[in-house]
Amino acid sequence: MALEIDFQGKNVVVVGGTSGINQGIALGFAELGASVAVASRRPEKVEATVALIEASGARGFGACADVRDFDALSRFFEQAHEALGDFDVLVSGAAGNFPAMVNGMSSNAFKTVVDIDLNGTFNVTRAGYPYLKKPGASVINISAPQAFVPMQAQAHVCAAKAGVDMMTRCLAMEWGGDGIRVNSIVPGPIQGTEGMDRLAPTDKHRAQVCQSVPLQRMGEKQDVAHCAAFLASGLASYISGIVIPVDGGWSTAGVGGMSGTLAAIAQMPR
Ligand code: COA
Ligand code: NAP
């Protein structure tokens, strides 16, 4: 059996792909030979990421779009399609997070996270669909452990990411007939990311997180990129509608230990 993962001649689009875990996914696909398009809100992040993609020898494209703006996303997809052609892989990873108790957040704060994470996933997948290769495309939504573990100070993210995983399952059913596979990846705590900076801001918090992971350490961006490459490859051609943790075993039990820590962080001044 040949275990080869090669994305030469393939087109990958990563929305929210200009920093952290999602940028790691975009660069991972570029290193495997794919042409890669990225979008996010800030032009300097888009430009820097396209430069990194091109520095690895791949074709890159980037433009600004906020996932809360369906029309802006549609324009981005149209331009990315013009630049690259049909999309073999579409990754939806934009998200917002801050630790806040329900009584410590406004209606707009809750709505903002749901709009970015959940409605954003609808917008990305809905606006991207016309440009997906049919049959053969792979859609990957980036979820979080909050989707299935309730946590204090994370009601907004828990609600939104649970919705993301249900979108994944529903889309796998609706688009299976087109030959499109749809899966979620649930990263565990990944070091050197904005998400971890917000949820574990001090060395003490980071040590607590590591102790709660069965493998006793945080993951690397590459760990998530490897899973995305596998899911998008022919090796996973009969895998659709799944939610796969890449978390060192965190989701077995340890992740709940974050809840009390986050409640304390939410009381700290903003
Ligand atoms: N606690 C409580 N409420 C908060 C908050 C906090 N720490 N941070 C922001 N909010 C509230 C704001 O006060 C505002 O509500 P209001 O209008 O009632 O005052 C609401 O959330 C929206 O904030 P705003 O700054 O206008 O939103 P934005 O669209 O500019 O940015 C965020 C979105 C808030 C999610 C911002 O943190 C962001 O851009 N995050 C992206 C990066 C990220 O979160 N990475 C980690 C991914 S896991
Ligand atoms: P990050 O670096 O902040 O990445 C977020 C990306 O999304 C950035 O490229 C950002 O760029 C973009 N983005 C944010 N809001 C957007 C919007 N409204 N429209 C378009 N793009 C937007 O965070 P990260 O920690 O690496 O997290 C990446 C993903 O992994 C998220 O889905 C997160 O929920 C998930 N995750 C992370 C961890 C972790 O340990 N970090 C754990 C579990 C799950 P701009 O600022 O330019 O918009």
Task: Please characterize this protein's 3D structure.
By secondary structure, this protein is an alpha/beta fold. The chain has one domain: 3-Layer(aba) Sandwich (Rossmann fold), CATH 3.40.50. It has helices at residues 20-31, 43-55, 70-84, 107-128, 155-175, 194-199, 203-212, 221-232, 258-266; strands spanning 11-15, 35-40, 60-64, 89-92, 138-142, 181-187, 243-246. Strands 3-2-1-4-5-6-7 form a 7-stranded parallel β-sheet, with helices on both faces. It is globular. The structure holds coenzyme A (COA) and NADP nicotinamide-adenine-dinucleotide phosphate (NAP). Residues 95-98, 100, 104-106, 108-109, 112-113, 194-195, 198, 270 line the site of coenzyme A (COA).
How large is the radius of gyration? Answer: 18 Å
Could you say how many structural domains there are in total? 1
Q: How many helical stretches?
A: 9
CATH fold description: Rossmann fold
